Amino acid sequence: MKDFFAKLKADLKETAGLVLKDFGRVFTVLLLFSCFQDFVLAPAGRWLWTLALSTIPGKFISFSNILSLFSPIVLIIGLLIVIGYAAALLWMTSLMIVIMECGRQDKRPGILEIFRLSAEKSSHALKPKNWPMLFVALIFVVILDLFNNDGRFAGLRIPDYIMDSVLQSTVLTVLYTAAAACLNLFLVKFVFSMHSFILTGADFTGAVKNGLRLVKKKGWNTFWQVIILEGISELLVRFIPGGIVWASSKLLGLLLSGQSGYAAATDVALKQLMVPALNGLAGMIKTAILFAFLAVLFARYMNEAGETLPGLSVKETPKKRSYIWVPTALYTVLYALCLLLTAVLTVVFTVQPETAETFAPEVLIAAHRGYSAKAPESTVPAFLKAYESHVVDYGELDVHPSKEGIPIVMHDANTERTTGHDAEIREMTLEEIKKLDAGSWFSKEYAGTKVPTLEEVMIACDGKIDLLIEIKNTKDCPEFEKNVVELIRKYDYFDKCIIQSPSYESLCKVKELEPRLQCGWVMAAATGAFFDLPAADFFSIENTFISPYTVSEVHKRGKKVFAWTINTEKSIREASDLRVDCIITDEPEKVVDQIHKNLGNLDNFIVDNMLNNVIRNVNEEDVKTLEELVNIPSED
User: Fold this and answer.
1) What is the pLDDT of residue 159?
2) Per-residue model confidence as pLDDT tens digits over 449-480
3) How far apart are CA 297 and CA 15, in angstroms?
4) CA–CA gap between residue 175 and residue 460 (Å, rounded)
5) Alpha-carbon distance 349 to 477, whole Å?
6) DSSP for residue 414
7) Is 124 a catalytic residue?
8) Which residue among 416, 463, 561, 620 sits deepest, i.e. has the most Cβ atoms within 10 Å of its Cβ?
9) For 440-449, how does the pLDDT look when each residue is reduced to its tens digit (9 = 90+)?
10) Which pairs count as long-range contacts for 629-632, CB under 8 Å and 24+ apart, including other chains?
């Protein structure tokens, strides 16, 4: 143990030296490569994907036609996109490895020389026998988020509704945790494969064998060293930028805090501009630290194995430029502009307070199945609780047809989960449904609560809260959409409800019956050109599949994006940052509190931002997983 920490201390010291020497190069290369990704690679990939989807009916993929992904043209073009992106990521990894190895060998190449050398060192990946290295790079970059300066891969995760199902089962929870642990240990064992591939010129097989040989009997040591480094680097890169913003706020506060528009100005200039920019810088610093540490560790392991790394033949700059002026100049200008913008906006918002509202777009809140955290879901008490919270815009509910075709409010098509009676709603009469108890499972307080009809909910909520009505499977009742629309007409609910459905066919029927109704398509998966579908006025999308591009394209067409189901602080922040129009949640008050948290209180915002980012790699689902494991009931 003593030897472990002695070596770790020496490695960290050398790592710090490399980062200080080479961060200017790292920043410049990451900045240039990000521009290449955003302006060349991403548009090209999007164009190719659109071309692929143009060959299938509808030109988009949703959960209803997900099997279209397996059409030959979509598969081929999709594979080409993945290969192209993997090649770019391998090149990016090569750039970082080359920069750090040049620094370790005390060589100072120019930026163009770095790009040339990294291309040369990774070019043998083009040989067919080395193609698997492309996917090694892809796996490492995506899973470990090596280039975490922009959160580019944050959306590549298991959808929340799938994770919720997994975590409800103890067996699946244990299997998920075990699989995650095995995957991390597996990745550690292969961590030096790319270094061997790029720096020694080995082919794929040789690089993998060499990487495995170097970490043989050192897997756990390597794992804990990387974990310790992750913790140290997170603390450094999050608290330093946070300190800069905090000091700036104190300086501005002395000058401007007496002005009524100061709070709104700091919210725009510091929270929305400076903090994200500094977080981007922090991510780049962390990337530099990680690759510097791996370079030091790889060299030490090679030395302990009695091997030496070949020297890099590079053309150095005459004055051994550090390029540190690039981030220094860029962030100095940005810092000055943010301070100036804060001062200008303070004056503007003080003189014209209404202008501040344009920078804080309204987000609608829909209570999922009513206020299901406070009352049994999909019951009248749940919708009244949503109204009583005074923060809910819509009560979201699902309707299924009874045997007679009457719209029944319940999420599941089967009544067992919330009533204990195993039966399909479509096979039950209203009289049979009314005998069920939909409240006892939640608490004794709600024992005897009945399963409501849509009509009963409309009567109870009239004048209190609007409804977001989701029409479920209607195959057994072709007239079901008509039955729902007739109720809306009967109670004049046109301005008090909107309709959504996972069936686009249902939306078309509703629009045909009543064009005045606003309709939305529920999408558990979403990709492609679905934005122009005429029967959809909004798109209700599982939050994992919502991207800035999706929101932008939908808004361009004057339509809206609803995000579901948003319950965790992480997903609330993501949805809010994406500027979605409506958040569907089980906990409306928690969402509103999170959205408005620290408004006008920059100190709390900075602390919250730093702490959330320090633990950003601890997925909230993983925390739930640990809680499930700790609280596994005993056999007794």
Assistant:
1) 62
2) 999 999 999 999 998 999 999 998 777 788 99
3) 9
4) 44
5) 55
6) B
7) no
8) 561
9) 999 999 999 9
10) 629/173, 629/174, 629/177, 632/170
What are the tokens at 361? 């777009």
Residues with Cβ < 8 Å from 478, sequence gap 6 or more? none
Burial of 311 (0-12, 13-18, 19+ CB in 10 A): exposed
Instruction: Provide the token pair at 623.
Output: 């925390």
**Residue 501 in contact with residue 471, Cβ under 8 Å?**
yes
User: Are the beta carbons of 174 and 629 closer than 8 angstroms?
Assistant: yes
Query: Side chain identity at 635, as an amino acid letter?
Result: E
Q: How many CB atoms lie within 10 A of CB 408?
A: 25
> Which amino acid would we find at residue 517?
L
Three-class secondary structure assignment of 8-42? HHHHHHHHHHHHHHHHHHHHHHHHHHHHHHHHHHH
DSSP 41-69: IHHHHHHHHHHHHTTSGGGEEEGGGGGGG
* pLDDT reported for residue 630: 35
* CA atoms 287, 293, 299, 302: torsion sign: negative
**Residue from 124, 411, 421, 555 carrying the catalytic annotation:** 411
Longest Cα pair distance anywhere in the chain, in angstroms? 89
From the candidates 124, 195, 368, 400, give the one annotated as an active-site residue.
368
- Between CA 301 and CA 218 the distance in angstroms is 10
Active site residue 411: yes
